[in-house]
Write a structure and sequence with these properties.
This protein is α/β, with parallel strands linked by helices. The chain has a seven-stranded mixed beta sheet with strand order 1-3-2-4-5-6-7. The protein has a single domain (12-298), classed as Alpha/Beta hydrolase fold, catalytic domain (Rossmann fold). The mean pLDDT is 92. The protein has eleven helices and seven strands.
């Protein structure tokens, strides 16, 4: 779609019930809007409409000149307005979590609830030291030396394409390859079920767009730089209900991060998922979608 304000292009794909309670979905780093495919069945059952957008700079969505969580949040609100939505929920997975929270800060009177899955964002007091030292260093490099960070990201993207590009002809294997590293506990069987029951064309698009997302060096860099900066808003000022869904064995974003963030948010619920890894939407999509629908009913949108 082209937004009325300046004609900004944003690519959007929808899942779930088209007449259901609306929820804007913000994908991880890197990835694409198609990532939300794993919530299609739970959303359909719970009567939830998942509106998933390629975040700025990913796929064909226009980049933002001065990227930040808040700048992305304003695009989210603009998309919701363009679609005629009044109130809506926001779902942020992994690297999309910071922008999801920022949306509640930018439009507190329109956001019913926020759901963070394996959420990463700007540094949180008491949690930053839980991140691997190499990642903390890279975040700082992204913020202070963009050319160096972009060079490293380009090398990483090339290596990923070499490893996974040839497997795209076997979509089930390609998707399992992407999920196996960070799936833990019950997520392992859930990932296998997702990869074996989803249509091959959907899996091929899911995996190929993930690789394309990794190649969006500018967008990945802007995410990394945003991770290294403090929020411009105070989490303690957010009154919107926030549910954090986080595995205790998450190797991508340590559980202590979610635990520390939940203490800063005045209206937070922390779902401590014992023995699980990063891909919590594979195992808790039903609960998340039911909660989204419940928040809509509570706010007068049935």
């Amino acid at each position: 779609m082209s937004l009325p304000d300046g004609g900004r292009r944003v690519d959007v794909i929808e899942f779930g019930d088209p007449d259901g309670a609306p929820a804007m979905y913000l994908h991880g780093t890197p990835s694409s809007a198609r990532e939300a495919r794993w919530l299609h069945e739970p959303a359909t059952t719970a009567h939830v409409r998942i509106i998933s957008m390629d975040r700025p700079g990913y796929q064909a969505s226009d980049p933002i000149a001065s990227p930040s969580f808040e700048a992305t949040a304003k695009v989210v609100v603009d998309v919701a307005t363009h679609l005629g939505l009044g109130r809506f929920s926001v779902v942020g997975f992994s690297g999309g979590a910071g922008s999801a929270l920022a949306t509640a800060a930018v439009a507190p009177n329109r956001v019913n609830s926020v759901h963070l899955g394996g959420g990463m964002g700007s540094p949180v007091p008491g949690a930053g030291e839980a991140l691997p030292a190499s990642r903390r260093i890279f975040f700082k490099v992204a913020a202070s030396a963009p050319p160096v960070a972009k060079f490293v990201l380009g090398r990483m993207s090339n290596r990923m394409n070499k490893l996974l590009g040839s497997k795209l002809q076997m979509p089930t294997l390609a998707v399992l390859e992407l999920l196996e590293g960070s799936a833990k506990g019950s997520q392992v069987s859930a990932a296998e079920s997702f990869a074996r029951t989803t249509a091959q064309a959907d899996l091929h698009a899911w995996a190929s767009e993930y690789l394309e997302g990794a190649g969006a060096i500018g967008a990945v860099w802007s995410d990394m730089a945003s991770f290294a900066r403090p929020w411009s808003f105070r989490p303690s000022m957010l009154t919107t209900p926030v549910e954090l869904w986080h595995g205790t064995d998450d190797g991508a974003v340590p559980f202590s991060y979610a635990a520390a963030l939940s203490k800063l948010l005045p209206n937070a619920t922390l779902h401590q998922l014992e023995g699980e890894g990063h891909f919590v939407f594979l195992t808790h999509g039903d609960e998340i979608c039911e909660s989204i629908h419940g928040a809509a009913v509570l706010n007068g949108r049935t």
